[in-house]
Amino acid sequence: MGTPYHLQSPRTIINKLMNRKQLPLALPQPPPVDPSKVIEQPPELPQLPPVDPSNEQPPAQLVDPSKITEQTQALRQPARAPSKIILQPRHRTSPAMWCAAIVCFAFSILLIVAGVVILIIFLAVKPRPPSFDTANAILNSIYVDSPAPYFNNDMTLVANISNPNKKINLVFRSATIELFFQDRPMAVQALPLFLQRHGQSQVLNMHLVSSRVLLPPEVAVKMVNQVRSNRVVYTIKGTFKVEARFGFGHYSYWMYTICELELTAPPYGVLVARRCRTK
C-alpha cells in the first residue's frame, strides 16, 4: 500500500502524474479460452513443385575450408593506402659538364666541316694515281754456275712513269724496283727522290744485275729450259711512296706495281710481251 494522497506533498503527486503519462498504454488481455472448445489440427506441410528431370542441376560442390579461411583473412586485412610517387629533387648540371659538352659539340662541328672540305677538294681536284709501264727491256746475259745452281743475270730496264693529274704534282719519296724469277728474288734497285709535275712523264733507266743467287734445283732446271726455248719470263715489282701536292695541302700514299715481262734468250734478249698493273 502506498502513502495516501492527502499525506503526500504536491510535488510528489505531480511527479507521479507525469510518469504515468510517459508510460505506454497496456494492451488489453485476451479473453480466456475454453480448453474443451479447442480443436487440434495437424500442421499443413508446404507443397513442392514437380521436379523436371531435364532441368535437374548438378549437386553443389563443396568449398575447401582453407580457401574460406584465406578469403576471411583477406577481408580482415586493412585496405592498403595508395602508393605515393616520391619526386627526387633535380640536381643542377655542374659547369664542368657544360664545358665538356661545349667542347664535344665544337669538335664534332670541326669534323663535319673538315669532311665537307675534303669532299669538295676531292671532287674539284679528282686525284688519280700515277701509271707505271716498262717501255723496253734487254736481257744481256744469263748463266748458271756448276755444280751448285748459282744464278747470274744482267738486264737493262727502261720504265716510264707518268702523272695523269691536271692540278696535282707528285713527289716520289722512295722507289724500289725488284726482279723475280718464279717468285724468287734475283735483283733489286732503289731509285732516288724525284718530282713529277702534273701532266708530266719521266723515263727511268735501271740496270738490274744478279750475282751468284742460289736457286733450288727445280727452279734452275726451269731457267735452263726457258733459255733453250728462247722465251724467258721475269716479274718486275715496284714499290713507291708518293706524296701528292695541291695548293696549300698534301697527302701521301703507297703505290704498288707488278709487270710480267717475256724476253728472248741472251745475248740479244729483247722484250717480246709485257703486262703491267698498278694498285
What this model shows, in words?
This is Late embryogenesis abundant protein LEA-2 subgroup domain-containing protein. Keywords: Membrane, Transmembrane, Transmembrane helix. It is found in: Membrane. The chain crosses the membrane at residues 98-125. This protein has a domain at 131-278: Immunoglobulin-like (Sandwich), CATH 2.60.40. It is elongated. It has helices at 10-22, 65-76, 95-125, 217-228; strands at residues 131-145, 150-162, 169-181, 184-191, 194-196, 201-214, 232-246, 249-263, 269-278. It is of the alpha+beta class and 279 residues long. Strands 1, 2, 3, 4, 5, 6, 7, 8 and 9 form a nine-stranded antiparallel beta sheet that branches. The longest helix has 31 residues, at 95-125.
Keywords:
4 helices, single chain, Immunoglobulin-like, 38% strand, 279 residues
Number of strands: 9
Outline: elongated
Helix content: 10-25%
Strand-residue proportion: 35-45%
What Rg do the Cα atoms give? Answer: 61 Å
Given as residue ranges, the uncertain stretches (5+ residues, pLDDT < 50) are: none
Level-2 CATH architecture of the domain at 131-278: Sandwich
User: How is the CATH topology of the domain at 131-278 named?
Assistant: Immunoglobulin-like
Number of helices: 4
Note the main sheet.
9 strands, antiparallel
**Which CATH class of the domain at 131-278?**
Mainly Beta
Overall structural class, as computed from helix and strand content, comes to alpha+beta
How confident is the prediction overall: mean pLDDT?
Answer: 78
The quaternary structure here is single chain
Quote the distance from N terminus to C terminus. 145 Å
Helix-strand topology string:
HHHEEEEEEHEEE
Domain Late embryogenesis abundant protein LEA-2 subgroup: 160-249
GO cellular component, one term: plasma membrane
Keywords: Membrane, Transmembrane, Transmembrane helix
Region (Disordered): 24-62
